[in-house]
Amino acid sequence: MTRLGCIADDFTGATDLAGNLTATGHRVAVTVGVPAQVPRETDAVVVALKSRNLPAGQAAEAALAAHAALHGAGFGRIWFKYCSTFDSTPRGNIGPVTDALLAATGAPWTVACPAFPAGGRTVYQGHLFVGDRLLSESGMRHHPLTPMTDPDLVRVLSAQTRHRVGLLPHAVLRAGDEAVRRRLDALAAEGVRIVVTDSVDHEDLLAVERATRHLPLVTGGSGLALALPRPPGGAAPGIQVAPGPMAVLAGSVSDTTLAQIAHAGDRMPHRRLDVADLLAAPEPTVTAALRWAGGHLAAGRGVLLHSADDRAQVRAAQRRHGTAAAAHAVEQAMARCARGLAEAGVRRFLVAGGETSGAVVDALGVRTLHIGPPLAPGVSWAAADYRGGALNLALKSGNFGGEDLFSTAEEAL
Fold this sequence. Notes:
alpha/beta, Rossmann fold, Molybdenum Cofactor Biosythetic Enzyme, Chain A, 15-stranded mixed beta sheet, three-stranded antiparallel beta sheet, 14 helices, 38% helix
């Protein structure tokens, strides 16, 4: 069976994909950044980059470096993983990275399959839905860095790539494998090199997987991983579980994360790190938060540190301080908090937000993650070696998980 080399554009996306691969019996390792040595005793390796919001050229260079490492280690198939809500800007980075990987892999064409029906992300007639709402009507329209205001993925991707983009519609998927092959052959004859695939349920993903398993490159969300055949003898190992209470660090300001913060507010100690304070006096603000957290942790209670309670606070901070400055201040503060909490002995962290997760993982010096039990579609616990013991991390995309995720996460351990 061909080993799968995966390139994820952020850290939560990496663990999202790894969790779904683990669920289908694959032995998976996640590396933080391009590894000097690629883990070999695996069915799949996921390279976690922090490239989603880089300039397009830099994002493509990072993906090509990951591809070179994976290809050099004998991985015969590449998967470019991006978010199931297609997080990007009119200039990229999904299109430019796909273009670069098409050239590097020599793939004649590839698919863009962001659908993750189990997580409420579906594509119909090329339009992306979050639950029962179009992407443009979902909370993603408010995203501070990649606001998604157009649900038509053919149109969005066409603006980002130099290649022609086509559509594999739902009606063709349901007409059988031969109809799918004819449609894909016709698109290729027309010069299409990136095919957006409809998928409204798992049966559609199975059809897409059968039609694309020969390709050296696939792109999309993690949903398609659930349609992969189980490797011979595939069985995911368990992970080491660290003791002690959990710390939740929520840098995301998505509607889903804000609802999770509100739900947890009645169930666990929580403290908001005000953006104005983080910009004016970052070190004293973090120090005070750590001192507050220490008292609760000493009593055996988990804690929640977050940057906003509701969208009004988010909008006010963005107006006053600028979106980029506010986001950067929160990201750096959460990284400092993670480092301080780990110094105090915390070994369980649930982190909400892709950029926040990347900052926290970097701050803790984690280089490899082993994937463990799922918390929700797209969210799993993982384990890393940390100072001679185990560290558990759950890296959550802002849009994933039920509203009770923060207060029930430790049950999976």
